[in-house]
Amino acid sequence: GAVVSQHPSRVICKSGTSVKIECRSLDFQATTMFWYRQFPKQSLMLMATSNEGSKATYEQGVEKDKFLINHASLTLSTLTVTSAHPEDSSFYICSARDGGVSNSPLHFGNGTRLTVT
Amino acid sequence: SQKIEQNSEALNIQEGKTATLTCNYTNYSPAYLQWYRQDPGRGPVFLLLIRENEKEKRKERLKVTFDTTLKQSLFHITASQPADSATYLCALGGMDSSYKLIFGSGTRLLVRP
């Protein structure tokens, strides 16, 4: 089945530094990937839609200059949290669809637990 | 305002019983609805898809219903097992031309042996 690999699984960084999270589709090509953020016991909040070869589409309230998304190939999207602050501490999860049908399931990575000290 | 509501309290049931989880939504018109399972510290895993013109879908011990008049989906696990313990998320899609999925906050299911 379709596999999405996300790295790193955990990262601790100091306030003011930047962190890059990678999301790879291992056995399929993904022209579109989705980045979500999840706080404890809360829903997955869609942050942005990553489009291969073009600019990402950000959801309302998400700062595009703070959460930089790059989707340079059909199998890799990266999310960079710039100038991280403690309030950015969260669980970040990427996902992608295997296939072009809009209702096909999302395949998720196992998430990245970011802790900013 | 737009909302997706799942019971925030954990559902605690005895092994062998049927678990029923609810997903209600307001001010959305989804073309389809999906259910996912999420284990602690992991990404969600897809379980079932049901389209707006379908009343019910089944897969092994799982059953999903979709009532667009009530704006509600029910998710059933029959003959529940301790291994079914997890958080179950509903997600709405097809509200516009985008491929986005909007998730509920999930309901935690605990199956006692």
Descriptive notes:
The complex is a heterodimer of chains A (117) and B (113). Chain A has no helices and eleven strands. By secondary structure, chain A is mainly beta. In chain A, strands 2, 4, 5, 6, 9, 10 and 11 form a seven-stranded mixed sheet that branches. In chain A, strands 1-3-8-7 form a four-stranded antiparallel sheet, with no helix packed on it. In chain A, a hairpin with a 5-residue loop joins strand 4 (32-38) and strand 5 (44-51). Chain A is globular. The mean pLDDT of chain A is 92. Chain B is globular and about 45 Å long. Chain B starts with a strand and ends with a strand. At the A-B interface, strand 4, strand 5, strand 9 and strand 10 of A face strand 4, strand 5, strand 9 and strand 10 of B.
Task: Give a quick precis of the structure.
The complex is a heterodimer of chains A (117) and B (113). Chain A has 117 residues and is mainly β. Chain A contains no helices and eleven strands.
Q: How much strand of chain A?
A: over 45%
What do the pLDDT scores of chain A average to?
Answer: 92
Major β-sheet profile of chain A: 7 strands, mixed
Helical percentage of chain A: under 10%
Write the layout of secondary structure elements.
The complex is a heterodimer of chains A (117) and B (113).
Chain A: E1 4-7, E2 10-13, E3 19-25, E4 32-38, E5 44-51, E6 57-58, E7 67-73, E8 76-81, E9 90-97, E10 106-108, E11 112-116
Parallel strand pairs in A: 2-11
Antiparallel strand pairs in A: 1-3, 3-8, 4-5, 4-9, 5-6, 7-8, 9-10, 9-11
Chain B: E1 3-6, E2 11-14, E3 19-26, E4 32-38, E5 45-51, E6 56-59, E7 62-67, E8 72-77, E9 86-93, E10 101-103, E11 107-112
